[in-house]
Design brief:
Number of helices of chain B: 0
Oligomer: heterodimer
Helix content of chain B: under 10%
Strand content of chain B: over 45%
Strand content of chain A: over 45%
Order of helices and strands of chain B: EEEEEEEEEEE
Structural class of chain A: mainly beta
Shape of chain A: globular
Radius of gyration of chain A: 14 Å
Distance between the termini of chain A: 41 Å
Radius of gyration of chain B: 13 Å
Chain lengths: 116, 118
């Protein structure tokens, strides 16, 4: 089984400032890692994913995340945010085993509020 | 990317009635779909896995007789909330992976259905 902890429930940030959203996970098996964004009353959109290889992954809208196996973390960053980045962000994991196939375990979410 | 639609986007019903929510993969076939539930300002919780041609598998604590799932075709799964009560009010989201193979595959999410039970 896997679990995901997002350490910040809400992150206020000024426009054009950098932002980091923290995510830690625990799992007894190797995992795939994801970050999703959810705008109000909408479904989820994939920002980026880590499957294997380079630990620094780049996603859409200028976001990037770094996988740190020793710290079991997958923090999300953006060097300069826009008002339109105001949304809920979810970190998610999925085990690589067949019994975990397709089943995403989500963190509680981090609400990012960007102000001018 | 692939598109998953849900219908309706919003539904209000009276307590005791049943509500059907549809999830469709518009440009790909999905032998498996997933149903999630999201309470206000909370995370998504997996409810069940919908399997085309076979019974759905439910997560622990989810009442299968209350949340009926039917995967009628390779592009359609339906979730029926039977005898709905106010505590069933929630945001229901479906997702579908783009490949039937049991390996990594991209999942795409529907826009969600907001259910309000009065």
């Amino acid at each position: 089984a896997q679990s995901v902890t997002q350490l910040d429930s809400q992150v206020p940030v000024f426009e054009e400032a950098p932002v980091e959203l923290r995510c830690n996970y625990s799992s007894s098996v190797s995992v795939y890692l994801f970050w999703y964004v959810q705008y109000p009353n909408q479904g989820l959109q994939l920002l980026l994913k880590y499957l294997s290889g380079s630990t620094l992954v780049k996603g859409i809208n200028g976001f990037e995340a770094e996988f740190n196996k020793s710290q079991t973390s997958f923090h999300l960053r953006k060097p300069s945010v826009h008002i339109s980045d105001t949304a809920e962000y979810f970190c998610a994991v999925r085990g690589m085993t067949t019994d975990s196939w397709g089943k995403l375990q989500f963190g509680a979410g981090t609400q990012v509020v960007v102000t001018p | 990317g692939a598109v998953v639609s849900q219908h309706p986007s919003r539904v209000i019903c009276k307590s005791g009635t049943s509500v059907k929510i549809e999830c469709r993969s518009l440009d790909f076939q999905a032998t498996t779909m997933f149903w999630y539930r999201q309470f206000p300002k909370q995370s998504l919780m997996l409810m069940a896995t919908s399997n085309e041609g076979s019974k759905a598998t439910y997560e622990q604590g989810v009442e299968k007789d209350k949340f009926l799932i039917n995967h009628a075709s390779l592009t359609l799964s339906t979730l029926t909330v039977t005898s709905a009560h106010p505590e069933d009010s929630s945001f229901y989201i479906c997702s579908a992976p783009t490949s039937g193979a049991r390996s990594y595959n991209e999942q795409f999410f529907g826009p969600g259905t907001r259910l309000t039970v009065l």
